[in-house]
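Please, structure for the following, as tokens.
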Amino acid sequence: MIRADLVIVDAAQLLTLKGPAPRLGPALRDLGIIEGGCLAVAGGRIVFAGRREEFEAEITLDDDAQVIDATDQVVMPGFVDAHTHLPFAGSREQEFARRLEGATYQEIARAGGGIMSTVRATRAAGEDELLDLVLPRLDRMLLEGITTCEAKSGYGLDPESELKQLRALQRAGRSHPISIVPTFLGAHIVPEEHQGDRERYLSLVTETMLPAVAAGRLAAFCDVFCDEGAFSVEEAREVLRAGARAGLRPRLHADQLTACGGAELAAELGAASADHLEQVSEAGLRRMAAAGVAAVLLPGASFCMLSTHYAPARRMIDAGVAVALATDLNPGTCCTESMQLMIALGCLRMGLRVEEAVAAATLNAAFALGLHESTGSLQPGRAADILVLDIPSYLHLAYRPGINHVRTVVKQGKVVAQDGSLTWENGSELVPDTP
């Protein structure tokens, strides 16, 4: 018999996503559904996922085991948010209002807004203040079912402020249930004070910031915004190679505004992911597929920027690219913590099937972060990062948008949110995943 300290029983649908990662092509629709399924957890890990009759034959409960009844509800892996800009100060709602009035992103930036607006606010904030801003964002993410997230710097753009952002993330990861995967994004844009000397800023990123990030073990990845108005392919290659030498795996903001060759660069460097990709070329998709580079799609950015152009998700799937979804939580172009909204937008605006969107927001997103062996699916040996959704079918995630369907959030075997309220007390008891 297998002993368990937490069990979830009689789910209308248990979405296990059992099997290899990433999901590619038609396999992206395979959610490994068990109707009337049961889960058993011991020591923060899943020890059983199967049918009720098998559960009764194989599982014995500890005396103080917790039993969660999931009758008429969906049980699935916790969402993995593979692209956020979590540690920032300030707010840009006035820019949003200007965009509604017809102002372009470039016009707003020229008027002193855009990324540099957030940079100024983030530089002025202390590390403790940044931490105090990050934690409630994590709380909202947790209530929405996100149990693991990637989080970038990139709003400091000087050594002190970039390190401050990453230290705030490190501290948040020690005190909050959500597992945080930190990314260094010093090459977000060239800041105002270096506009006349790009080479000097690139040297600052590669020769000063990156060594300090690596020495402090403050990031797992190095990212670059490779696009018009940010960094060229040649500049991005220089930064990402320096990051790789420092032990940080590459990822890219690529081909969002123009088809600049970011996807091709991601394939060349064996990046973990290329993100955005609204303007990606067919050659870029083929090379990404061949190199095993994940495509992290951010439908919320197109939606909030009033764009009718979204990343070509169907062409990506047909090309054999591993497709993931993420929120792109940031203060300027997608200020939301809702992965459920991204699933709905992925279906309604990108042409994803609901099954594909669910897999993209869980197992494939975990693959994009190098965590697919530990999270993103519900099978024995994986972390017990579990959601119970108050819906009878996973189809409701897109069918009923704008609603938080999460009833219960389990992180590493502990109930951390229930019925819209946080229940965790000491996140430091939870061991964060690392890529």
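The longest helix spans residues 198-215. DSSP finds 16 helices and 19 strands in the chain.
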